[in-house]
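Go through the following before class.
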Amino acid sequence: MSDRYPAMPPRDPNPPYKRIATEEAWLPPDMMEMYLKELADQNIDDPGFHSLWGFFTGSTQKAKDHSRRIQSLGEERISDMDASGIDIAVVSLTAPGVQLFDPETASALAISANDQLAEGMARYPDRYVGLAAFSPLDPANAAKELERGVDKLGLRGGIFNSHTLGTYLDDERYWEIFEAAEALDVPIYLHPQTPSAQMIEPFLKRGLDAAVYGFACETGLHALRLMAAGLFDRFPKLQIVLGHCGEALPYWLYRIDFMHGHISVSARYEHVGPLKRRAWDYLIDNFHYTSSGVGWGPPIKFCQEVIGADRMMYAMDYPWQFVPEEVGALDAMDIGDGAKKAFFEDNARRLFRIE
């Protein structure tokens, strides 16, 4: 690591907690082949996909290592977990997942991906738990697949990779998915996606479209659209998970709450009206947050202070940001023993029902 960053001490070899990493990416080999075909044919207008996966399927060593790791649910991933001190990984389909394809194709791919993930979990039952993929633009089948994933395959929630070719799920026609999640009492992980075609152009020129900034802008936007649409008034027990220390939303909490409180009663916007609770309440009561991609104590501690130590969880963001040394840095965070155990283990066990 660069000397700009604080020194990363060695990880504790015998911590008084298990380490559960809650946003760990995977892509089945058959879907990788479909990505490669799309990159060659360029039939789908998604410049973010072509920017991201055009690089990570390339010939650099970084791309080759990433491509190999992200397709593994076997020995290499387990070996990397062991070397990093990760006891359990919550594995989910990486962006854009099935959401690159038409709804019918995407629904079929989700079934296949979930079956393959369940097979991987069965091979390593003490090391993996998984989240179910689905096609957001096929809500009836998405709800059925989420239910099948949880009830039949033992998956612990759902994953969707933010917008689907520019479509956001604040439209009520898609809320059958959230209804199913609340009924099943499982969380939905709102994972980043590169900005949509209508949003991405200002990001691309300076390389800001992906993890450096674009992911947070796009995913934070989606989370706020869900909130402002009244999703959590309809489904008050629903839990959404945001990575990367909440895509910066905890930092903006005061201003989001203050301004939305005024805007929602102003009649300024046709599709914005009063909600039953404050924005502040939804962003704390209906969200959990992970540290994925943030191997640095201060923002994690800030989220624990603002959002609550019972809602902040560890994640590495493997293999997109594979930094084993961060584990030692976070072991050494200057927080209470209870908060540290909650961060690494207890919150994830509770939310994802890990025994």
Observations:
- The longest strand covers residues 20-26.
- Residues 262 and 274 are 9 Å apart (CA to CA).
- The mean pLDDT is 97.
- The first helix runs from residue 29 to 41.
